[in-house]
Amino acid sequence: MGVFTSMFARDLKLAMRRWSELATPLIFFVIISSLFPFALSPEVAVLRSAGTGVLWIAALLSSLLALDGLFRTDMDDGSMEQLILSPASLGLLVFAKTCAHWVVSGLPLIVIAPVLALSFYLPPESLPVLMLALLLATPTLSALAAIGAALTVGLRSGGTLIGLLVLPLTAPVLIFGTRATDMAVNGESALGPLYLLGALAAFSLSLAPLASAAAIRVSGE
User: Fold this and answer.
1) How many CA atoms lie within 13 A of 1 on its CB side?
2) How many CA atoms lie within 13 A of 105 on its CB side?
3) How far lies 70's CA from each of 22, 56, 162, in Å?
4) Who is most buried in 28, 57, 71, 198, counting CB within 10 A?
């Protein structure tokens, strides 16, 4: 766990030094979520019915903005070669980098999402379910992002390809997350979709670091 902690702390420090990259996904999420109420009808029923989908789509798209730099910086400065040759498990190092990516890109979305949800007149009692659903969904998005970034790390313009690779895989997360929030808005129990989101998170976090490590090794050859 010492290797994991060191890599996790290193990536967090590097992310804090790049405030522009750190703030871009959050600003994008705020702007997209704030513009939709102006484009839709001001009626409460219309905003409430569309708000769930808008929030989840905005969160999904904003999480893709910081993908290209997940491994590319280490590849450009030669750090990735040292990580590949190190005796530590590359899968564990990738998992640490994925966790750091989630902290700087996914955790801020969870914190600010309830505030933006109020602009769509979502009931206050549904906000804890929204936050819990995002808490379960965003690790899966980060794990999928790691796979996409690892597959394209050897390409000069891999940012566009990452989105094309990752977006189709995020459909189950979007479906279950939206469904859980909708059920909470309507006063129904959202345990079913939340359990599925948790299962997806456990499955993706178990296999994605290994798949990402294998892709990085291929790209490094």
Assistant:
1) 0
2) 36
3) 12, 22, 11
4) 71
How many other C-beta atoms can be found within 10 angstroms of the C-beta atom of residue 132?
Answer: 18
From the list 185, 98, 188, the residue with the least C-alpha distance to 138 is: 98
The 10s digit of each residue's pLDDT in 104-157 is: 888 888 989 998 888 888 888 999 999 999 999 999 988 888 888 888 776 665
Helices 127-151, 44-63: inter-axial angle, 10-degree rounding: 30
Tell me the pLDDT band of 48, cut-offs 50, 70 and 90: confident
The tokens for 19 are 């405030």
Residues 6+ apart with CB under 8 A from 31: none
Any idea what DSSP says for residue 66? T
